[in-house]
From TrEMBL:
It is an enzyme of class 3 (hydrolase). Residues 24-277 form the EAL domain. This is cyclic-guanylate-specific phosphodiesterase. Keywords: c-di-GMP. Its EC number is 3.1.4.52. GO terms for molecular function: cyclic-guanylate-specific phosphodiesterase activity. The lineage of its organism: Bacteria, Pseudomonadati, Pseudomonadota, Gammaproteobacteria, Cellvibrionales. It comes from Congregibacter litoralis KT71. The chain holds residues 65 to 353 of 353 of the full protein.
């Protein structure tokens, strides 16, 4: 009986594996089609400056409107695109789309703001990334000062020495660099000090965990670290007044999360840019004193 069970178990496992790779193949095929037929869209989530309450930047976030399955989350298709290499084409599409939207926002006289774009590890590791970004900036005419590239901690910290050069070269194009999901990787502090990084993005898991003593201590430490290294700190995933009040009190530079705004359609960006959250921030801080 044990033998039969073992076999049944093995077969079940096999079928499950198979189903998973069929699913993967289907997604890969559909994604190719999606890029050809404009099923991808961008949303923009506001980032609020704690001191002024102004929306000074937005993060571009990709969405996939699948014709049969509806909206697919990037958490589901970005890893597939990363493993098939399609993330390279996807990443180029995102940058072009951001440039196109910026041209439009300029044309209606909107005050300039920074746009943050996620760069995947595979994209970052392309040997011609620098060349590509340089070409992109000159072809699109996008002011590099409007662009911040978000890199993950794990992508830049492995192979630290050679990445310091790579990041410096990117930065010399005039754009800003951020470390996304900071605190979840394995940053060596001695490396971090030498990295030409403008912004540390505190991972939302720490913001969600601020009720615990450890969670709060980690957030405090990252904000202090950013100050020491002359970097900006930004907290993502702010959903509650308690989180806002705590982070503002601790002097985080920027705040991003559903409490302020969800990722927005590009047509809603002009309104978002004109928002002034200074009274909201003052009121919430006062109520939590
Ligand atoms: P991320 O770069 O860390 O982006 C932040 C994620 O947190 C976004 O999820 C955003 O919608 C979500 N978020 C923002 N505020 C809140 C909040 O208050 N509460 C909660 N629960 N979530 C919040 P999204 O848009 O689903 O993207 C997930 C991840 O997919 C991103 O994480 C990023 O790693 C990746 N991604 C998204 N767009 C792109 C892209 O254009 N290129 C690449 N390479 N990756 C992307
Ligand atoms: Mg990000
Ligand atoms: Mg993040
Ligand atoms: Mg994240």
């Amino acid at each position: 009986a044990a033998k039969a069970d073992g076999r049944a178990c093995f077969r079940f496992y096999n079928e499950e594996m198979n189903a998973r790779s069929v699913e993967h193949l289907k997604l890969e095929e559909d994604l190719r089609e999606a890029m050809r037929t404009n099923q991808l869209e961008l949303r923009y989530q506001p980032q609020v400056e704690t001191l002024t309450g102004a929306v000074v930047s937005l993060e571009a976030l990709v969405r996939w409107k699948h014709p049969e399955r509806g909206m697919i989350s990037p958490a589901d298709f970005i890893p597939v695109a990363e493993s098939t290499g399609q993330i390279i084409e996807l990443g180029e599409w995102v940058l072009k789309e951001v440039a196109r939207h910026c041209v439009y926002w300029d044309s209606i006289g909107l005050a300039s703001f920074r746009v943050c774009v996620n760069i995947s590890p595979l994209q970052f590791n392309q040997p011609d990334l620098l060349h590509y970004v340089k070409g992109f900036l000159s072809r699109s005419g996008l002011d590099p000062q409007r662009l911040e590239l978000e890199l993950t901690e794990s992508a830049i910290m492995t192979d630290g020495e050679s990445n310091i050069l790579k990041l410096s070269q990117l930065k010399s194009l005039g754009l800003d660099l951020a470390v996304d999901d900071f605190g979840t990787g394995y940053s060596s502090l001695s490396y971090l000090r030498r990295f030409p990084i403008n912004t540390l993005k505190i991972d939302q898991s720490f913001v969600a965990d601020m009720n615990s003593a450890d969670g709060a201590a980690i957030v405090d430490a990252i904000i202090a670290l950013a100050k020491t290294l002359n970097m900006r700190s930004i907290a993502e995933g702010i959903e509650t007044e308690e989180q806002l009040a705590y982070l503002a009190e601790r002097g985080v530079d920027l705040m991003q999360g559903f409490y302020f705004a969800r990722p927005l359609y590009p047509e809603d960006v002009p309104n978002a840019i004109r928002q002034d959250y200074s009274e909201t921030i003052a009121r919430v801080r006062k109520s939590k004193e």
